[in-house]
Amino acid sequence: MGLVMNMYEVIIDILEKKGPVSFHTICEEMNERNWTSKSGKENPVQVSQVKSVVTRKKDLFSVTGDIVSIREEKELQSLTAMIGRFPGPSFKVEVDFVHQRFYMFEWRNASLMQKDREEKTIYIGNVEQFKKEVIRLKIWNWERDYQPEALVLDGISWSVILKTKGKLYESEGLHTFPENWHKFCRAISQLIGMPFK
User: Fold this and answer.
1) Looking at the domain that runs over 76-192, which CATH code has it been given?
2) Band of residue 120 on the pLDDT scale cut at 50, 70, 90
């Protein structure tokens, strides 16, 4: 599989490709993929292990009878992130998780009239890897608004809109950020092939 993934990430990957399936099907698929845990163990995955992970990650998974699915409010569809400095430059990244592509926009000199749209057709980053990072960062837990205690006349303004199958999560701020903001910016930078900060 290349990168070593957490078991819950493999389960998400299986559910995204196959749709809602039974614990037994997830277990079989993981064993067919020869999934190896981060500890390097290659023992066959047991149904009890899959059930344990799904139970621990109730915020991600829904279970009806024996069928496991991704919760609609955590099934990522798209993400839009904007970051701007006064007087500039400003960036906007739109990620389409469904079609596995992204777009990047850049504004210079704080003039919206000079908006340049550039569609990235070159394979730069990995949308699938970025998606896993968004899930790890739990962006849906970010507050709605991040504002400094003191008056700020310039600085960095930002916004993030995460659309899932069942919910829209929006966060924005001015010179104040969520705790894991730097990890989020690093993940976007890896995706687009240039600094996003």
Assistant:
1) 3.30.1560.10
2) very low
Are 166 and 73 a contacting pair, CB within 8 Å? yes
pTM: 0.81
Please tell me whether residue 99 adopts helix, strand or coil conformation: coil
Domain covering 7-70 assigned CATH 1.10.10.10 in the classification: yes
- pLDDT of residue 114 exceeding 50: no
**Token pair for residue 125?**
């980053």
Delimit the CATH 3.30.1560.10 region(s) of the chain: 76-192
Task: Considering the chain, tell me which residue range(s) the CATH 1.10.10.10 domain(s) occupy.
Answer: 7-70
pLDDT higher than 70, residue 31: yes
Average pLDDT, the chain: 86
Q: What is the 3-state secondary structure (H, E, C) of the chain?
A: CCCCCCHHHHHHHHHHHHCCEEHHHHHHHHHHCCCCCCCCCCCCCCHHHHHHHHHHCCCCEEEECCEEEECHHHCEEEEEEEEEECCCCEEEEEEECCCCEEEEEEECCCCHHHCEEEECCCCCCCHHHHHHHHHHHCHHHCCCEECCCCCCCCCEEEEEEEEECCCEEEEEEECCCCCCHHHHHHHHHHHHCCCCC
Estimate to the nearest angstrom the gap between the alpha carbon of 53 and the chain centroid.
20
Query: Poorest-confidence range of 85-99, 112-126, 176-190?
Result: 112-126
Return the amino acid letter for 139.
I
